[in-house]
Amino acid sequence: MATLASERQGRPTDHESFLVHKRFRWLWVALALSVAATAGYFLADVKPRPNGGSWYGYVLGTVGLLLIVWLALLGVRKRAMTEGRWSLKAWTSAHVYLGLSLTVIATLHAGFQLGWNVHTLAYALMMLVIASGLYGITVYARLPEKLSNNRAEMSKRQMIESLAAIDRQLDAAAQPLARAESDRVIAALEQDAFRAGVIARLANAYRGCRTARALRGFSADRELDAHETRVVALLEKRAAQLAQIRRQMQLRAQLDVWLYLHIPATVALLGALTAHVVSVFFYW
Amino acid sequence: MSFRIRQIDVTATGREIVRERTAEGPALSIGRSAENTIAIPDLAVEQHHLTVTADPSGALVFEAAGNLGFTLDGRTRLNETVTDGGAELVIGAYRIDFAAGPDGEIEVTVRRREEREGGKGDGGHGFTLASALPAKRPLAWALLGAIFLAFLIVPIWSNLTRERVAPDPDKSGAVAMDAGWSTGALSTAHADLQDNCEACHAQPFVAVRDDTCLSCHEKIGDHAAQPRLSLARGPMSWGDAVQRDIADVFHKPGAGACTDCHTEHEGEGRMKPPAQQFCADCHGTMDKRLTGTRLANAGDFGARHPGFQAAVLTAPGQAKPQRVPLSARPKEFNGLKFPHDLHLRPGGGAARMAARLGSAAGYGGTMDCADCHRPTAGGARFKPVRMEQDCGSCHSLVFDRAGGNFRTLPHGDIGKMRAALAGADRAPRRPLASGRRRPGDYAPGGIYYGNFAPPQRASVPLASRMLSVGGVCAECHYPGGTGVQPVIQPKRYMAHGWFDHADHKKPKCATCHAAPRSSTSADVLLPDIKTCRTCHLGEAAAKPKVASSCAMCHSFHPRGSQPPARMGADRNKVAIKGPAIRKSP
Fold first, then answer.
1. A contacts of B141 (beta carbons < 8 Å)
2. Is B161 helix (H, G, I), strand (E, B) or coil?
3. Given an 8 Å threshold on Cβ–Cβ distance, is A158 in contact with B274?
4. Is A259 exposed, middle or buried (0-12, 13-18, 19+ CB in 10 A)?
5. Min CA distance, B7 vs chain A (Å)?
6. Partners of B322 in the beta sheet?
């Protein structure tokens, strides 16, 4: 147990979010950075107007560039897990808060001058990355609980097996049915629950759901015999299981979708930033 | 109540062996032990794992014997009641299907489970968005490639391979897609160069050089001659020195480069005039570095600007004007006797004369400045006063009457004046006596007529009399030489500062020029700096004062008698090559 005790030293056993890491240490650092940049903006005597090409503009531009490169390195850093002072949690906390401080630094660097050019493209991409990151923080804070509630102590594997179990029973129960009714069941069984597009997943809207269509078909029939009643009960079970799976997919999609903006936009930002720096000095 | 149990085993060759039996009674026990109704040979299953009871209503009650659960329809349970007649129980490696059979029998099928019945993999992948979207990496690479192509590769390649030509604002640039590099619109003066980046940015990674500016602005003059210009340069602050050192490392031109003061890409409209500080850096403490300079130190107009000095002639015959401070109330000699107060006094003789002449002669009720002082075309200055036009309605130049005509003296040319007056001297003598006539041939017209009257006063020529000290010319002029001292009306008193009367129409003339109280034309009626400062203060002045930086009145580049460069009227005139390079606006 001695090794366990030593391992625990300096490593809190309670869960602490990267947002509150070390009593918001990086929030304060980022705030201090933003306040200093703003104060400098008003104190620096830059003529004729604040500009990215003034001495203060170069200072803020250098700080912003280094920050962006460092922030982008989270992708490299998170693949190398370590602990201690530069634990991944500390790094992520700094990533979030320093990333937010970029809104101030880059805006002041630009001197509020925007246009249709590569410089503003870099700025817009940066803002897109930050906005998507903000969304990411929000969903990471709110959705895991919902995800857990929706799972109801079932693993994803169990959800799929549950659906498979229902399907096998449906297949068996539908044997006595007539052609038209059988086709409804076949259609429902053939449909892959996971063949859904981004929008369907995010909106949790499945217009072409054949299980629902089969249920509508049976409810339109006037009289149901015992076999059909059994099939309808199983279809309802299937629909309920599908609903859980789809809600799970929706929450996962909401959790994942920002990264599809955040990551490619970051890479595009690094490109636009390179073009920004090169072009400024190419046409110095 | 009975259970029909079908046990399906699969041989090594894949053949299915089905054994059927019937278990009577309402309950069915399942476990590893052979005593159970259904024995499951799996170590993961307990000896007595669960009991299934069929109650008379047809419901099936599943109940675990121990605290290990079972999987019913995919869900892990300790007990569960199924009412719809069918269920799928998974326990260990076995699957047991329950279905309602004929005659109230319950069909139970026991079979070994196949591996991964729920599908491929761990089944979790389908939940993630990655299964519905292309991967992030190809998207990122595509965006990166597009940005590099559009904003780096195309402009740089076309810049490096372009044909080198002299900058020409009338042509568009040869570099493709470099508009995306522009950091902002050019000022009005350079708007034609908007699409011609390489006209100014001639060399890659080389800051804009003075030579490039001078290739168009070739007539622009330098502020002062070297080495005085460099000597006068102000001491740099610590921060400026560091900036300069860094700029030198990167071979940025300066100090004193065009771009130090003139910055571009600041947006459309007039190029911003250089800040007051650019001038004050050197002029604020220039006497320390440029010993012997005649220029006083100058900074903020409201606080640190020396008093005005006017270039005036102070004595008759002086050829070169002399700069004298206005604060000392200097006297000038311009060759004219003209008391402004006499002419401007309401109710005075001049005023009454003007009233009598009335509007037909161009006068209002009294005399005012505009009666004699007429503005130049742009309104910036005033034309010289012309005697015939501006004084002549009262100070008549008529000297003779011949028949019904009045003869007017030519003014301004002594020779012509003397010639005209010599003609007047030939007037006939009057008869010695009037009312009486001589008789016969002695009468006028007779051959013995003789006029013995003294000659009219022409023995001293009229011109000489007029030009003498007590003569009519001397009312306004000082005698000198062969005639009078020339009258000199300077165009400008201050050659290095600009003042535009057109911009100052609102106040009355007398607000700045103390003419109504001036009894002699020796008074230099220019306002001192105090007068200007009632409205104009330095660059930082707040309203209602007029914020006035150096560039309002002064031009860094010498512009002679032209006003400081301003956009608008002067936009295409800032010492550029000539009309060929610029079309008129």
1. 267
2. coil
3. no
4. middle
5. 17
6. B312
CB-based burial label for B434 (10 Å; 0-12, 13-18, 19+): exposed
Q: Residue B113: list chain A partners with CB under 8 A.
A: none
- In tens, the pLDDT along A219-252 reads 888 788 888 888 898 999 999 999 999 999 999 9
Closest residue of B to A276, CA-based?
Answer: B181
Model pLDDT for residues A121-172, shown as the tens digit of each residue: 999 999 999 999 999 999 998 998 998 999 888 888 888 888 988 898 888 8
**Nearest to residue B199, comparing CAs of B180, B216, B184, B182?**
B216
Find the DSSP H helices in B275-432. Answer: 276-283, 286-289, 340-344, 349-357, 414-425
Q: How far apart are CA B63 and CA B66, in angstroms?
A: 9
Q: What is the ipTM of this complex?
A: 0.87
Taking an 8 Å cut-off on Cβ atoms, the answer to whether A47 and B278 are in contact is yes
Q: Are A241 and A104 in contact (CB under 8 A)?
A: no
Nearest to B204 among A154, A267, A282 (CB): A282
What pTM, to 2 d.p., does this model score?
0.74
Report the gap between the CA of A26 and the closest CA in chain B (Å).
29
Long-range contact pairs involving B567-575 (C-beta distance under 8 Å, separation at least 24):
B567/B187, B567/B188, B567/B189, B567/B269, B567/B270, B567/B271, B568/B270, B571/B188, B571/B189, B572/B189, B574/B189, B574/B217, B574/B220, B575/B217, B575/B218, B575/B219, B575/B220, B575/B221
Query: Does the beta carbon of A246 lie under 8 angstroms from any beta carbon of chain B?
Result: no
With CA atoms as reference, report the closest residue to A190 among A174, A167, A158, A221: A167
Q: Do A245 and B155 touch (CB under 8 A)?
A: no
